[in-house]
Amino acid sequence: MLDNLTHRLAKVVKTLRGQARLTEENIQEMMREVRLALLEADVALPVVKNFIAKVKEKAVGQEVVGSLTPGQALVGVVHRELTDLMGGAHAGLNLAVQPPAIILMAGLQGAGKTTTTGKIGKLLRDRMKKKVLAVSTDVYRPAAIAQLQTVSQQAGVDFFPSKTTDKPVEIALAAVDYARRHYYDVVLVDTAGRLAIDAAMMEEIKALHANLKPIETLFVVDAMLGQDAVNTARAFNEALPLTGVVLTKLDGDARGGAALSVREVTGKPIKFSGVGEKLTGLEEFHPERMASRILGMGDILGLVEEAQRGVDADQAKAMAQKLKSGKGFDLNDFKDQIAQMRKMGGIASLLDKLPAQFGQMAGQLQGGVEENAIRRIEGIINSMTPLERSKPEILKASRKRRIAAGAGVPVQEINRLLNQFEQTQKVMKQFSKGGMQKMMRGMKGMFPGMMR
Amino acid sequence: MFGFLKKPGASPDAAQQATTAQPGDSEATPAPKRSWTERLKAGLARTRQQLGGGLASLFSRRKIDEDLLEELETTLLMADCGVEATTHLLTQLRQRWKRDRLETGEQLQAALADELHALLAPLEKPLQIGTQSPFIIMVAGVNGSGKTTSIGKLARWLQAQGKSVLLAAGDTFRAAAREQLVTWGERNGVTVIAQESGDPAAVVFDAIQAARARGIDVVLADTAGRLPTQLHLMEEIAKVRRVIAKAEPSGPHEVLLVLDANIGQNALQQVKAFDAAIGVTGLIVTKLDGTAKGGVIAAIARQTPKPLRFIGVGEGIDDLQPFEARSFVEALFEEGPRSTA
Description:
The structure holds two protein chains of two kinds.
Chain A: H1 5-13, H2 24-40, H3 45-59, H4 70-85, E1 101-107, H5 113-126, E2 132-136, H6 144-155, E3 158-160, H7 168-181, E4 186-190, H8 199-212, E5 216-222, H9 229-239, E6 244-248, H10 257-266, E7 270-274, E8 282-284, H11 287-294, H12 300-310, H13 313-324, H14 331-343, H15 346-353, H16 356-366, H17 370-382, H18 386-390, H19 397-407, H20 411-432, H21 436-451
Helix pairs in contact in A: 1-2, 1-4, 2-3, 3-4, 4-11, 5-6, 7-8, 9-10, 14-17, 17-19, 19-20, 20-21
Chain B: H1 10-20, H2 31-43, H3 45-59, H4 66-78, H5 82-99, H6 105-120, E1 135-141, H7 147-160, E2 165-168, H8 177-188, E3 191-193, H9 200-214, E4 218-221, H10 231-247, E5 254-260, H11 266-278, E6 282-286, H12 295-303, E7 308-312, E8 320-322, H13 325-333
Parallel strand pairs in B: 1-4, 1-5, 2-3, 2-4, 5-6, 6-7
Antiparallel strand pairs in B: 7-8
Helix pairs in contact in B: 1-3, 3-4, 4-5, 5-6, 5-12, 6-13, 7-8, 9-10
């Protein structure tokens, strides 16, 4: 994980340890590393250049406080600046007009406009209790209208049917007219994806905007976008008075430098970020988290949230109940735990989210085979009968042989698993007695063994 | 967009001339190839504007010096070449500058074109449709990369090669994905095997059986878009691949990953992740028109080389074409020096 900025800077910084403040000279090389890190995160070059100039100005003369190394101090400055750049407070949707409030969606092909339209519809309906009408003016791509219809249905918002033979402007006006007569609060107008250089298509969306006079014009951008984000955003911003940006596909592993490029060029707030394909996957945009992500600093907050999403709350509660009641922790629970871990994306993806140094340490610790080991454990448990799972103590030689044959592993593997399980059980017993500290002590001995 | 260059006024002009100058330029090329070359050039107009146009103003200066190289670095980075590929290209150029005693900008440009060609040439491995019947092509990619559209175009291309084609609507997840593929099938006059929702692997299995029964040459299997971080979905697509192998032990004969040229360095991650899951054997890079970027291809060539089977340079049904390194590089550079006037 060399892409981590902190890590990168650490190398440079070795030479200037002990200097009390950041100066023009000693940050020169570090700035180069910052530049590379940003470029690798797909921040557009002109934006990087501006940004570097700004950071330099701020950084020069900064005292290196206390125990910080100059590198850390600089990362601090960079992170702060990035956060500032991406906009302070969260900006919500503006719906303060005489209803219906019209929201126009614009963006490139495949940016995620239709999905985002559905997500916004659901958000408005569920959280803000609005009556929402969705309409598609994408008469070009096959089945685009059908897609919005399905998405609207899933989101529980009304859909205004349109035909591919109609003109986009006419469709939109008809929808608004319908909305006005049927007292809708919001009309979501989905449009066809278009390239910024396609003059005819840009004229079309300009015409749509002029006719509809939407209160919100949202620019939908793929977080994976590369250097061209800057040009695309500029072209859209010049053609349309955008009011905000929606960043999509943030659940991917792109670092999302496009967010910074788009923000810098348009000057418009990033209002939402889209994660996942479920219609609930629309979140408020968090500038600091985005800053950490662009810098490759690890998304601890995201990790926590993912854990919360991945872990089934009911299941966890049932588990806690079981532990409290003093009933034993059996192999079924052991397997559930493993399954939960997998649900969170497996150990590898968890490691990815950690800041690089930790990630590297953890990676070394386990030699990278942990994913397979876990699958094997699951296989072994799956080869047991329900009775064996709840009472592992009945496992004797012949049962073990059968299980080993079923799971396709040597008998020793079964013994190893049982040992691990016993250790875990011990820890759980301590836990149920309320000794958190004791548990941590127990864990210490357990972890290396468990992973091998 | 050229604000970072030293002479901001000059570049857009130069680029514009570059675009307008193009049709007259291909007179020498043989007639059947011409239309494609022209389409490629038209499609790459923006990449050229970024690379060629940017370079034109660079190369107009007579002497090669560090400043020129630095600006060249900038231009390459702006084209999404990525840090690694850019550094590589520049190192090569620096060597040649000294070794071959290059002096003028034009010479440097020719050297860059050479290097770029050398970098991209290994990717030029056109798709060979084998004799297996049916020849099974599986198509994967992230959301919105243009899988379904590419399949539609690919079907057309295969038909032009005299192959009969069957489409499998393996995207059972996204709303209306099936309808989209069915529409493409209608346009091409191709049968589409689809199911009311259900398991993608099952749809593909059915399609292979159907193709065998009807004696069809090529099966194109669509899959739902997925981000490589969604592990369960990556497992699902690995299963689709396994099921194909079950239905046809020698298959899938080709696993194509569709990449959107607009995306940046994440393309590398995508190639790696999909390769790990389903063993990618070829790439399709879409939406090369209208983006400034052919550069990500260079990054891929450098870091995760995979045969680049097709590139998409427009919205028309014929705008998906086999990748040719030479004409690609030529299309990028052709007008560079001429537009400096």
